[in-house]
């Protein structure tokens, strides 16, 4: 039976833990709002870019222009998957879910590709794969500390260059898709070669644009931006998911701490009551003995 | 029917207004757009984009991108875009000088030449627009 003082100390420590988890939950909630806002703000550009690309690509397809190298699929031998995780933990299953999803992807795609390399964004992903003796080709650090479009662009440019140089035949992005504050879905999507641009935008195809400098040149300018946009969106979705996951995990941690405090208080009161009763009994029996 | 102008960047929607005229820096030279312009799509150079509305000129610094016009809707997909009044001149000058120094150390074959030269052009465009 723990002493009264022990119980009191434990209550104190659980209370301070609760305070920390509560604060973290509130911080995450604020960050989540900002991250969600950032996702919403990219929508107009993403939509218009898709539309423009659809128009240009549809026309290009009609004219049977030689396909742009970023669009052309080729023999798939070497693939690479970029895993987006967070730098910090305490976010429930956020990081392990996506890492496990990637491991499954590696097994599934073993037949399709001769070789699949793994690269990571975020400290947690790197640690996960290192611990499992899976080689991490490149680790992109410091991307998430202050997320800017420029960083997404740098990452996407690097992969485009490697793809065009023939170092890699397919690139995938793995990240947590943001569904809601309490639900995230780990997904693996193909980044290169580009797939979506092939869908023709029927409404735009009928407009006969005059292009400057030329349609092919515009397409060559639009496609890299499309890739960057995909990377940018993945990073933003992942950031929002991370804060959502942390918020809900901190909320349940706070709830657990509260339950613990309740049960410890009960235990404390019982122990105190037992102590008081024991003392009373001793006094009474002492007084009885004096009679 | 009125001419509308929308400027969006990957980070946000910058502007959505009804205008009389738009002047923009195309890769093949500057051009203007008024009502009932033919469908047109072009890449943009980093530079000054101006729109006229009620006789007043509004200047924006755009950092490259695309412009398309169809059905009297002008849509600008810019890499960056700021109103002249929002430009941080000191920061633009610092970026300009730093990027220029780096650029001078590179040759066209070097990795990063394109990115650095784009940075110089964007900063230069900001300075030009802020000065006007």
Summarize the topology:
The complex is a heterodimer of chains A (291) and B (132).
Chain A: H1 4-62, E1 78-84, H2 94-108, E2 115-121, H3 123-131, E3 136-140, H4 149-164, E4 170-180, E5 183-192, H5 202-205, E6 210-212, H6 215-290
Parallel strand pairs in A: 1-2, 1-4, 2-3
Antiparallel strand pairs in A: 4-5
Helix pairs in contact in A: 1-6, 4-6
Chain B: E1 3-8, E2 13-19, E3 21-26, E4 29-33, E5 40-53, E6 56-70, E7 73-78, E8 81-83, H1 89-104, H2 113-131
Parallel strand pairs in B: 1-7
Antiparallel strand pairs in B: 1-2, 3-4, 3-5, 5-6, 6-7, 6-8
Model description:
The complex is a heterodimer of chains A (291) and B (132). Chain A has helices at 4-62, 94-108, 123-131, 149-164, 202-205, 215-290, and strands at residues 78-84, 115-121, 136-140, 170-180, 183-192, 210-212. In chain A, helix 1 runs antiparallel to helix 6. Chain A has one domain (27-198, 208-248): 3-Layer(aba) Sandwich (Pyruvate Kinase, Chain: A, domain 1). Chain A is elongated and about 115 Å long. Helices cover 62% and strands 15% of the residues of chain A. With 291 residues, chain A is α/β, with parallel strands linked by helices. Chain B has 132 residues and is an alpha+beta fold. Chain B has two domains: 3-84, Sandwich (ATP Synthase, domain 1), CATH 2.60.15.10; 89-131. In chain B, 27% of the residues lie in helices and 47% in strands. Chain B is built from two helices and eight strands, in the order ββββββββαα. Chain B has helices spanning 89-104, 113-131, and strands spanning 3-8, 13-19, 21-26, 29-33, 40-53, 56-70, 73-78, 81-83. In chain B, strands 1, 2, 3, 4, 5, 6, 7 and 8 form an eight-stranded mixed sheet that branches. In chain B, strand 3 and strand 4 form a beta hairpin. In chain B, helix 1 (89-104) runs antiparallel to helix 2. The longest helix of chain B has 19 residues, at 113-131. Chain B is globular, with a radius of gyration of 15 Å. The A-B interface holds A 38, 41-42, 44-46, 48-49, 52, 55-56, 149, 154, 157, 207-213, 217-218, 221-222, 225, 228-229, 232 and B 6, 8-13, 26-28, 38-43, 66, 68, 70, 75, 77, 79, 115. Strand 6 of chain A pairs parallel with strand 5 (40-53) of chain B, so a sheet runs across the interface.
């Amino acid at each position: 039976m723990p002493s009264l003082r022990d119980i009191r100390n434990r209550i104190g420590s659980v209370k301070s833990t609760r305070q920390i988890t509560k604060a973290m939950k509130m911080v995450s909630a604020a960050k989540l709002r900002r991250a969600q806002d950032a996702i919403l703000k990219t929508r107009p550009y993403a939509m218009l870019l898709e539309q423009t690309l659809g128009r240009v690509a549809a026309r290009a397809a009609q004219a049977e222009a030689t396909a742009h190298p970023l669009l052309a699929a080729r023999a798939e031998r070497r693939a690479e998957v970029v895993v987006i995780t967070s730098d910090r933990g305490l976010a429930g299953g956020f990081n392990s879910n996506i890492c496990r999803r990637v491991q499954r992807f590696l097994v599934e795609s073993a037949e399709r590709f001769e070789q699949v390399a793994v690269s990571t964004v975020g400290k947690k992903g790197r640690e996960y794969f290192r611990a499992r003796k899976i080689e991490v080709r490149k680790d992109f650090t410091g991307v998430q500390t202050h997320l800017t479009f420029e960083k997404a662009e740098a990452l996407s440019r690097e992969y485009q260059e490697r793809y065009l140089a023939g170092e890699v035949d397919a690139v995938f992005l793995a990240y947590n898709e943001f569904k809601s504050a309490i639900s995230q879905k780990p997904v693996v999507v193909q980044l290169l070669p580009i797939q979506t641009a092939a869908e023709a935008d029927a409404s735009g195809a009928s407009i006969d644009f005059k292009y400057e400098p030329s349609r092919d040149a515009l397409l060559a300018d639009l496609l890299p931006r499309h890739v960057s946009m995909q990377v940018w969106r993945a990073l933003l979705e992942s950031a929002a998911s991370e804060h959502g996951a942390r918020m809900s995990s901190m909320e349940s941690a706070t709830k657990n701490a509260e339950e613990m405090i309740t049960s410890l208080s009960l235990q404390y009161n019982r122990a105190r009551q037992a102590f008081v009763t024991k003392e009373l009994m001793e006094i009474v029996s002492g007084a009885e003995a004096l009679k | 029917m009125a001419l509308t102008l929308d400027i969006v960047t990957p980070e946000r929607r910058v502007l959505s207004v009804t205008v009389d005229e738009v002047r923009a820096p195309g890769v093949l030279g500057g051009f203007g757009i008024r009502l009932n312009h033919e469908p047109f799509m072009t890449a943009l150079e980093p530079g000054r984009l101006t729109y006229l509305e009620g006789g007043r000129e509004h200047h924006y610094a755009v950092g490259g991108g695309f412009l398309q016009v169809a059905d009297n809707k002008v849509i600008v997909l810019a890499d960056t875009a700021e109103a002249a009044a929002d430009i941080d001149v000191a920061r633009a000058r610092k970026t300009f000088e730093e990027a220029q120094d780096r650029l001078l150390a590179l040759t066209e074959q070097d990795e990063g030449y394109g990115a650095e030269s784009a940075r110089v052009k964007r900063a230069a465009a900001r300075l030009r627009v802020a000065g006007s």
